[in-house]
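Data availability (excerpt). The following record was deposited with the supplementary files.
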Amino acid sequence: MRVIDSFRGEHFFLSNFYPVGIRFRGNIFPSAEHAFMSAKTADERRIEAIRTAATPADAQRIGRSVPLVPDWDRIRFDVMAEVITAKFD
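Predicted structure:
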C-alpha cells in the first residue's frame, strides 16, 4: 500500500487549499478551506468575507478571528466531513 504523506504535487487536489468550487450551505466557495472557515460563525458579514477572501490562507486568517457558533469544538469534525463530502460530490 502506498502512503500519501503530503498534499503536494500530484496529491494537491486532496488539500483543503486546492482551488475548486464547492457548493456548501447555499453558497459557492473557492476551496474547502473557505467553506470550513465559514462554518465557524453565524455572522453573515464574516461568512461573506471568508467566502470572498482572495486565498485559502486569507480565509483561514479571517476564520481564526470570528465569533464561533455554539459547540464549535464539538461539531467541527462533523463540519469538516460535510465540507469534504461537498468537495468530492
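Summary of structural features: The chain has a mean pLDDT of 97.
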